[in-house]
Amino acid sequence: MRFSLFTVVDHYEDGSYELPLVFFTCVASTRTEAQHRGREAMLRFITHQHHGVDIQHAQHEVHVLDERKQLWFGDPGDLIRLIEQHQAVLDNRHFVFWADFGGMPFASVRESMRLLAEEVIPRFRESGEKG
After folding, report:
1. In this structure, how many other beta carbons lie within 10 angstroms of the beta carbon of residue 93?
2. Does residue 28 fall inside a structural domain?
3. Does any domain span residue 1?
4. Range of the domain at 72
C-alpha cells in the first residue's frame, strides 16, 4: 500500500488511473475519545462551511457522513479494520486521511498523525512489501 500526501491521481503503465479515497480522520488511543473529538470537529466544520446552518442540520450531515463510512474516527485497530474492509471490496491503495478539520486542536491532529504513522500504516506497508 502506498500512502502519499502529494499524489492526487496515480497513473499506471496499463493506462488506468486511481483516485485516492478521502476520509475525515481522527485517531486516538480509545475509540470513545476519537469519536468525541472527531464529531465535535465535524460539527464545527459543517457549520463553518455552510453559513447559517442550524445544529440539527449539522448533526444530520454528520450522521449521513457516518452512514456513508466517510468518518474514520477510532483507535488504530479501527482504522486498520476500515482500510481492510475497503481493500476487500475496492482495489484501492491510496487513502487521504484528512485529520485537520473543524478547528481540531493541534495536539489531536498530531496524535492522529502519530498513531497513523506508527501503528496503522506500517501494518499495510509490511504486507505490501511481502507481495
Report:
1. 18
2. yes
3. no
4. 10-130
Residue 80: closest CA among 124, 31, 15: 124
Structure-block grid coordinates of residue 110: 498530531
C-alpha cell at 47: 457549520
79 falls within a domain: yes
Q: How many domains in the chain?
A: 1
Residues 34, 74: contact at Cβ < 8 Å?
A: yes
- Tally Cβ neighbours within 10 Å of residue 117: 11
pLDDT recorded at residue 12: 61
H or E stretch covering 65: helix 55-67
Q: Does 23 reside within a domain?
A: yes
* pLDDT computed for residue 41 by the predictor: 96
Give me the pLDDT at residue 44, please: 94
pLDDT in tens, 84-115: 998 888 777 778 899 999 999 999 999 999 99
Read off the CATH number of the domain in which 74 is found. 3.20.20.30
Q: Tell me: the pLDDT tens digits for 2-42?
A: 444 444 455 566 666 666 778 999 999 999 999 999 999 99
- 27-28-30 Cα angle (round to 5): 125
